[in-house]
Amino acid sequence: MTALTWLGRHASALLLLGLVTVPFVPVSPERLKPLLPVLVSLVTALAIARQPLGRDDLARLFPPLGTARLVGWLIVSQLGFSAVAVLISNLLGIAPWLAFLPVAFFSTAPLGSAPNVAAMVRCDVRLALRLTLLGVVLAPVLMPLALSFTGATLDATPWEMARRVLAMLAAGIAGGIAIQRIAGLDRIERNTDVLNGLSALAMIGFLFPLLSGTGAAIAADPVLAAGLFTLACALNFGGHLVIRAAARHVVPPETAAAAGLVFGNRNMSIVLAALPFDPVLTLFVALAQVPIYATPYLFTPPDRRDPAPACPASSES
């Protein structure tokens, strides 16, 4: 057994280990922020590399009617939920800096590594991949538009944010295609544990620009940190479980699990990578990594944490 295979088979525990150690690395996240675009591209590439990308494969992955439904859902879950969050914040008189945080969550595309996480928890990888790929395509339009609902003064224009997001995600797609061409899809499919190990390492790498120095920030204002952590968990786990429960009425459990997972786990690091440094937003995104990195452990039944067969194909069409 290779080291990467072992890491892939213990990915959920490895992610938790990274989660509890990286925050105490004495490096400012502002200094490591330039790494974020590269890491966004890397985890996107690892997700893309798993998927057959031939013309016929893509036609099967994205049937017209099913794709239209998923695009509609992404528009609702990003623009619609962002608009509702802004409306509720205005009605309740919530401070603009705080009202911006839920919109930062809802506005962003699915987590680039969502298909990797779906593979770890043995749910519907195909649906997770479809939503992630469509989210990648729509992100340069939906994210800046959703953030504009807040009325916040942003240093970057919507066009500039769109350009940055498009550059990061396009690099990830190109990287995924390159990995698949070099390694070969058959070899990738035979070594899913190896790819899970690489994905876990990439996700831990993500933690350094997001979580390093977070321990000091929490100590400086523990009340703020506790509030941000509670909000992050409510948005992630709450959204995950609500969407999962609702989806079970219309799709199989594995597909419903993937729908909830993708909804609750979002790529908020793109907001950090696209906008100027903000300490509160940075701390919120850092603390939001806790439910993301706990998801593979919490949502994998104990009797399925050992290697298991590939997930069934999505029934969503």
TrEMBL record:
<protein>
    <recommendedName>
        <fullName>Bile acid:sodium symporter</fullName>
    </recommendedName>
</protein>
<feature type="transmembrane region" description="Helical">
    <location>
        <begin position="194"/>
        <end position="211"/>
    </location>
</feature>
<keyword id="KW-1133">Transmembrane helix</keyword>
<feature type="transmembrane region" description="Helical">
    <location>
        <begin position="94"/>
        <end position="115"/>
    </location>
</feature>
<feature type="transmembrane region" description="Helical">
    <location>
        <begin position="223"/>
        <end position="243"/>
    </location>
</feature>
<feature type="transmembrane region" description="Helical">
    <location>
        <begin position="70"/>
        <end position="88"/>
    </location>
</feature>
<keyword id="KW-0472">Membrane</keyword>
<feature type="transmembrane region" description="Helical">
    <location>
        <begin position="161"/>
        <end position="182"/>
    </location>
</feature>
<dbReference type="InterPro" id="IPR038770">
    <property type="entry name" value="Na+/solute_symporter_sf"/>
</dbReference>
<keyword id="KW-0812">Transmembrane</keyword>
<feature type="transmembrane region" description="Helical">
    <location>
        <begin position="7"/>
        <end position="26"/>
    </location>
</feature>
<feature type="transmembrane region" description="Helical">
    <location>
        <begin position="127"/>
        <end position="149"/>
    </location>
</feature>
<feature type="transmembrane region" description="Helical">
    <location>
        <begin position="32"/>
        <end position="49"/>
    </location>
</feature>
